[in-house]
């Protein structure tokens, strides 16, 4: 078994109002059950981070990536499955009806568009992910600045 950490890509999808898209993971998920999350997942063999971002956004929302704005950061963590992960997170914009994402059945139960003042919602089930998603969101909003662009 490889000792290398699993590689992941995360998309912080930004709307025209400077809000970011979050979705709640199903309570039946093995990792981070019932917690709020960004769009993303593991890189498939041979896949680049950009390819993974594009694939995951379409799989999890039905939208298409229109612009990769820039990096938010790289985060290392160990899931409750004991596997180490390195996640590369990016601010992006998408094409599609932002009022009607197509959430993956069985994987996500609801979604929200949040602004910087709404991040307390991400503290729900914080013990599951130790506040990682909120920290990522705060860093993303800091990069976006007050205009959300």
TrEMBL record:
Keyword Repeat applies: no
Native source species: Micromonospora craniellae
InterPro entries, per the entry: Nudix_hydrolase, NUDIX_hydrolase-like_dom_sf, NUDIX_hydrolase_CS, NUDIX_hydrolase_dom
Record protein name field: NUDIX domain-containing protein
Family note: Belongs to the Nudix hydrolase family.
Residue runs in coiled coils: none
Keywords carried by this UniProt record: Hydrolase
Domain Nudix hydrolase: 4-136
């Amino acid at each position: 078994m490889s000792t290398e950490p699993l590689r992941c890509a995360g998309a912080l999808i930004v709307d025209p109002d400077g809000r970011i898209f979050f979705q709640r993971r199903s309570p039946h998920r093995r990792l981070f059950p019932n917690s709020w999350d960004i769009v993303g997942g593991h890189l498939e063999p041979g896949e680049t981070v950009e390819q993974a971002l594009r694939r995951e956004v379409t799989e999890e929302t039905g939208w298409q990536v229109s612009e990769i704005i820039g990096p938010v950061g790289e985060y290392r963590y160990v899931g409750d499955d004991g596997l180490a992960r390195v996640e590369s997170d990016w601010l992006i914009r998408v094409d599609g009806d932002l009022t009607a994402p197509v959430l993956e059945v069985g994987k996500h139960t609801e979604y929200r568009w949040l602004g910087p003042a709404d991040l307390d919602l991400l503290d729900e089930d914080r013990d599951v992910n130790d506040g990682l998603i909120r920290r990522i969101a705060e860093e993303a909003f800091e990069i976006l600045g007050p205009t959300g662009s």
